Amino acid sequence: MNAASLPIISMASLNSSEGLAQLRQAASEVGFFYLVDHGLSARTLQDYLALSHRFFLLSEKEKQTIDMIHSPHFRGYNAVGSEMTSGRLDAREQFDWMNEEIALAPEQLRRPWQKLIGPNLWPAAMPTLKPALLYLQTKLSAVSVTLLQQLCKALGVSPNALDATLGEQPYTHAKLIRYPAQQTAEQGVGAHKDPGYLTFVIQDGQSGLKVERDGQWVDVAPIPGALVVNIGELLEMASNGFLKATNHKVESPTQGVERYSIAFFMGAQLSATVPVLSLPPELKARALGPSTDPNNPLLTDVGNNVLKGRLRSHPHVTREHYCSEPLKQLLAESFTAIPTADICSGCRV
Fold first, then answer.
1. How many whole angstroms separate alpha carbon 30 and alpha carbon 129?
2. Measured between alpha carbons, how far is 203 from 190 in angstroms, rounded to an integer?
3. Phi then psi for 238, rounded to 5 degrees?
4. Which domains, from first to last, does the chain contain?
5. 0.70 exceeded by pTM
6. By CB atoms within 10 Å of each CB, which of 56, 77, 100, 145 scores lowest?
């Protein structure tokens, strides 16, 4: 897929019926598109990629002080080979941050997903990182809420139809990502769909992101200043399958080239339950239900759906923080009916 064949959506066009129709077509037929005129300049996006590059240049000792193994909330640094997708290790180095929150005391936990709530880990060796990334998080959160509301309008429902699931601010998760060069093309990140409402990706000039379309893997070429947007599984569920969450992956770069990107995931509050929107008859007739994967079933309760993904992706963190009582009992109650693989002895999640 070249740049011209992936839909390009202008935020400025979404005040018109024609722009909304283009957005509806891109989100329902492809599930991926470029977003331009979103309010962040190409220079700003490049500055954030440069900031990411500086973070990964920190020494291993400095990065290990904020390793995710220290966070029961799945935040912090992951070395290459620390995260799994589709049951295989990814060849990527990354830094994860989410909403800044206060962790609940163990006796306050009533649901296992509540353990996801907590503070981020920030490197003392790079004090500028925290304010810069929290600012980016705020800006992208605002863009994502506006785009979600425009998608609702494009579906013929109230633009505020999903606002109640967002609360005062959406649940967000973001990553700085470095894909080091490999001898041959390997799994930078394996084929998957994203679990939230919307994902934004800031790409550098190195290609590698691929989208599955009509049974073929096609390239998503970088366009300076554009955000790559993909529809997540929550929106596929909310639209009863009318909107399309699409498989995608990243192949590792070769020949001494590295790839840098920033991924931003926006979803509903962890306490929310995703509603099914009442689409107009002409769209409802085309909504055939969300796609299903028996090995990774979708859950309408957002917190458990998010936690399920974290537990599978980061088994070392799972073993460290989720295999003690009474958490094992909470996990068993939440996931007992799901046919999923063992993460560690005594836990089925």
1. 35
2. 17
3. -65, -30
4. 3-348 (2.60.120.330)
5. yes
6. 100
